[in-house]
Amino acid sequence: MNADLLDMFNATLGGPLIRQLGSYLGESEDTTRAAVRVAGPALLAGVMQRTASPAGVGEIFRVVTSDTVDPGLAGKLAGMFANRGTLGSLLASGESLSGLVFGPRTAAVSNAIADTSGVRPNSALTLLSLGAPLLFGMLRKFVANNDLDASALASLLARQKSSLARGGLDDRIAGALGIGSLDTWLGSLPGRTAAGTATLQKTRDKGWLPWAIAAGIAVFGVLFFVSRTAEHQEAPGGAVQIAEVPGDSERLRVATADSAQVYFDSGDASIDAEDRQRIANVASSARDSERAVGITGYTDRTGDQDQNLELARNRAQAVRQALVSEGVSEDRIVMDPPRSVTGSGTDEEARRVDIDMR
Q1: 3-class DSSP string for 162-175
Q2: Which class for 216: exposed (0-12), middle (13-18), buried (19 or more C-beta within 10 A)?
Q3: Who wins on pLDDT, 264 or 340?
Q4: Using an 8 Å Cβ cutoff, are 115 and 38 in contact?
Q5: What pLDDT is recorded for position 77?
Q6: Whole-angstrom distance, CA of residue 216 vs CA of residue 104
Q7: Alpha carbons 82 and 340: distance in angstroms, whole number
C-alpha cells in the first residue's frame, strides 16, 4: 500500500480547480497555486504532528473514520464551487478540522502561508479549511479500501516522511508549526532516526551534485537540451528508441521557460521541490501559449531493461501529473515513448524526463 498524499493533494487542488479556487478567494491564479503548494505540506505536517503520540493517533483515526469525513470529496470539489451553500458547509467542517490539526497555531500557520505565497491571510485560512477535509477524505478512503486500523493509519502517515522531505516546508511555516528544522523534526518522529533522515537527504544531494557541477546551475536552476528534433521521431509501432546520452559539454545549456529536465535517483520516480519549480516554470510558459508540451522519459543502461522502461513511464507520468496540477491542459500534453540511451554520458544523466514546448 503505497500512497503519496502530497502528490494526490496537489493533483486535486491544482489544474482546472485553481481558476475556480482563485476566483472564489479573490486571488490570482499564480498566488493561489503557490498557496496550494505550501498548504498541502503544512496540513500533512500538522497531521503527522498529531499522530506522533498514541493519543493523537487515536483521535485522528476517530475523526477520519467518522461520517463527517467524505472519502469521495476529491471528485466533488469542482461542482461545489457552483453551490455556495454546499461549499459553505464544507468550509465550516474544514475550519473544525483545521483546528483539530493545528490547535492554537491555526492563525499563525495561515499567516505563514499568506506570507509565503502572497495570498491574503483570510484566503490562506479559507484554503486550509478547504484542504483539511480533502486530506482527511483521502485518509478515510485509504482506511476503508485497505481495512486499516489506527496503527496502520499511523504507519501510512509515517511513510509520508520522505514525500514531505522532498516537497519541503518553508521555514516560516515550520516556525508557525513549532517544529523548527524540518529534517531534525522528521528524524525525531517514530519510524526513522535522525541519522536515517540525514542519510536520505545526503543521498539525494549526492545524486544532484554532478549535475550542479556539470551544468553550472545558476539562479533559475533549469536545465534543458536544444536541437533534439531527431529524438522526437517516434519509433514505428510504438517501439522504444535509442537516444544518445549527452557528454559533459552537451550539458551546458541556456535556461529558458520552454524546456526543462527533471532528474531522478536510481529506482525513484518521485518529484522534489526543485523539480516542481522547474516544472512550474515550463507550465507558466505553456499556460500563456497554444503550443503542445512534450514529455519524454529515459532509462539508464543498468539492471533489467523492462523494469527500466516501466520506471521511465512512471517518471514521465509523474511529470505529466505535475504539469496538470500547474494548470496545463491534459489535451496539450504529448507523451513520447520511453527511450533507452547510449553514448558517452553517465547513467545518472540518463535517469531523467525531458519537458519541451513544441
Answers
A1: HHHHHHCCCHHHHH
A2: exposed
A3: 264
A4: no
A5: 84
A6: 45
A7: 47
Cα–Cα distances in angstroms (integers) from residue 147 to residues 140, 152, 156, in the given order: 10, 9, 12
**Would you state the cell numbers that stand for residue 32, as one nine-digit string?**
493561489
100 vs 110: CA distance, rounded Å: 14
Out of 98-102, 301-305, 318-322, pick the least confident: 301-305
* Distance between CA atoms of residues 326 and 305, nearest Å: 32
In angstroms, the CA 142 to CA 155 distance is: 12
Q: Is the dihedral of CA 179, 180, 183, 185 positive or negative?
A: negative
CB 165 within 8 A of CB 36: no
Mean pLDDT within 103-110? 94
The grid coordinates listed for 8 are 494526490
Tell me whether residue 83 is exposed, middle or buried, using C-beta atoms within 10 angstroms of its C-beta: 0 to 12, 13 to 18, 19 or more.
Answer: exposed
Rounded distance, CA 178 to CA 101, Å?
13
Phi-psi region of 16 (alpha: psi -120 to 50; beta: other; left: phi over 0): alpha
Q: How confident is the model at residue 342 (pLDDT cuts 50, 70, 90)?
A: low
Q: What is d(CA 30, CA 232) in angstroms, rounded to the nearest whole number?
A: 31
DSSP one-letter string for 241-256: EEEEEP-GGGG-----
For 192-224, what is each residue's pLDDT tens digit? 333 333 333 333 343 444 433 343 433 333 333
So what's the pLDDT on residue 191? 58
Please say if the pLDDT value at position 54 is more than 50: yes
φ, ψ at 355 (rounded to 5°): -120, 130
Overall pTM > 0.70: no
| Gap between the Cα atoms of 98 and 341, Å rounded | 48
C-alpha to C-alpha distance for 265 and 207, rounded to whole angstroms: 6
| pLDDT, tens digit, 9 for 90 and up, residues 228-242 | 333 333 333 334 444
Q: What is the mean pLDDT of residues 158-180?
A: 89
Q: What are phi and psi of 69, to 5 degrees?
A: -105, 130
The radius of gyration of the chain's CA atoms, rounded to the nearest angstrom, is 21
Give the separation between CA 57 and CA 50, rounded to whole angstroms: 7
